[in-house]
């Protein structure tokens, strides 16, 4: 006989929230004093401030400054239970969610479901690129990229030929959105400033950083003026910007791209590749959309109603990076505001019996976008207001400090940024072989679970050093 789905003791309205990113966390917080029980399910045990992953990848911050225990954040909220696990199934008609954590499986019954599982990296149908060009969506990604970056410089010290050294010191970043621009700027900073004088057999500033994008400008959402300013600053820092170029192949030692105007193909020899182009919403979105009878977009986002429900299900909400509502961008503010909104209307329904038909529509207030280009230089777009340079950098610092969770993380980050502004030092450059090769090693072992005989070193060798 099948075990009955789990519900908290008592007879209160049960809200299940999938995902502890900005959307899920702010929805749970909005329900802190509501007459409900909350089960918050997340595949990791931490809340991640993803916009700063690139600073972990480039040795400025440690992962602890941007990844905080979910249980610690919600420790004072009595009506929430935190569950670590992967959601493997959502049964819309049965109103259940099934999770798996190792060998442990449990099914939860819900009265309201908030799906805030976020998005991962998209390779636009070329998932084979991932082996050689990691994305930057998780702490594991950031640590792997940091290990690859540092290893490239370390190995260049031992290179026996200029050709080998040039390949090791060529860094290709695909995607000129905020993440790609910020990464390119920081890698240039590492090469020209942080590593200056630390190597005997070569000059780190000879590193070649290439930023590739298929669009005609960097930072398209910021507009042409700010995009041009960001591009000029990157080029001043030594970054080669290649626009109107679509990547057609990535392998262990090279990247090939095609010029969209001339059709000409170019192959760059590069040991280190990083992918920051495109996002793909959690596959849970498509699973839910099929059951409800709506069509998800190619990137996995699900069309939602004015109250962020899906189809005719007035107790099923999709928020943040997973939703498609008026083409809202996949940024933290959209997730925060949609999470707070859903928490509020669930509370109104439970405590004041507000019918779904009487719900106010979700309205997004655009607080602007910003990206740091280099030390003392950032671009900010807030409506019609556009700011670049030192003032933009100060605004970026203020906003990002305010979003970090916990006094310690704010103080440590402020100290780190101040120190980096005044000195070339980076204090989080320690790396391990496990960080550098673990993802691909694990994938290969999973593919050969029955008789996996490859040792970690053998998998490393077959993957190539980078």
TrEMBL record:
Record's keyword annotation contains Flavoprotein: yes
List the catalytic activities from the record: a quinone + NADH + H(+) = a quinol + NAD(+)
**InterPro entries, per this entry?**
FAD/NAD-bd_sf, FAD/NAD-binding_dom, NDH-2
Q: What is its EC number?
A: 1.6.5.9
Q: Which keywords has UniProt assigned to this entry?
A: FAD, Flavoprotein, Membrane, NAD, Oxidoreductase, Transmembrane, Transmembrane helix
Record-linked Pfam families: Pyr_redox_2
Q: Where is the FAD/NAD(P)-binding domain?
A: 14-339
Q: Where are the transmembrane segments?
A: 387-407
Identify its protein family: Belongs to the NADH dehydrogenase family.
Q: What is this protein identified as? A: NADH:ubiquinone reductase (non-electrogenic)
Organism equals Corynebacterium godavarianum
